[in-house]
Amino acid sequence: MRLPLLALLARGPAHGYEMKQALEQLLGAAYPQPNIGQIYVTLGRLEKAGLIRGEDVEQSSRPNKKIYHLTDAGQDELRGWFAEPENEPRVRDEFFLKLALAPGTGLADQIALINKQRRQYLNTMRSLSKLPGAEDRDNRIAQLLIEGAMLHLQADLDWLERCQEELEGPQ
After folding, report:
1. pTM for the whole thing?
2. Buried b vs exposed e over 85-118: b needs ≥16 C-beta within 10 Å?
3. Can you tell me the distance from the alpha carbon of 129 to that of 30, in angstroms, rounded to the nearest whole number?
4. CA separation for the pair 171, 163 (Å, rounded)
């Protein structure tokens, strides 16, 4: 949550609720909705770290609000984030651990695990295709997020097929 909030502040000063709305609007329903409490806790930590600066703004008919600004240090942090490629190979996969450990336990069948996981991926794909934004040409970011998730799921389904073929051996 830290770096996405810094990225929003690079667009201009904002308060926490505005950032929550901006993330929801940008990413659509496919992305987990940010919790406003988490946003304000993160903003407090970013301010303490010197990456942002908060400014209290008086309002006549409402309680005062705090507007946050990106500092030079925050901008440097954000530049570093954008400069680094993501290195997330899915080597630590919870499902694969289940698959690898199941035979020694006598508690689960590997093929049954694969079939259950396959059903889960297919259900997730169906749910994603029904989300608002899946066909929304006006919000390309949300559409690309959903499309990326679908492609990852398709790759996972292909991998499950490969696992099943390997475990069943030559027929």
Report:
1. 0.69
2. eeeeeeeeeebeeebeebeeeeeeebeebbeebe
3. 10
4. 15
> 1-20: per-residue pLDDT in tens?
899 999 999 989 999 999 99
The CA R_g of the chain, rounded to the nearest whole Å, is 22
Distance CA 145, CA 27 (A): 7
Helices (H), 12-93: 16-27, 36-48, 72-83
What digits encode the pLDDT tens for the residues 30-40?
778 888 999 99
CA atoms within 13 A on the CB side of 121: 20
Q: Which of 154, 153, 134, 152 is nearest to 144 (CA)?
A: 134
Q: Would you call 89 helix, strand, or coil by DSSP? A: coil
Cα distances from 103 to residues 17, 49, 99, 110, 170, in angstroms, run: 49, 48, 8, 7, 19
The token duo for 131 is: 């989300």
Pair of tokens at residue 156: 């996972």
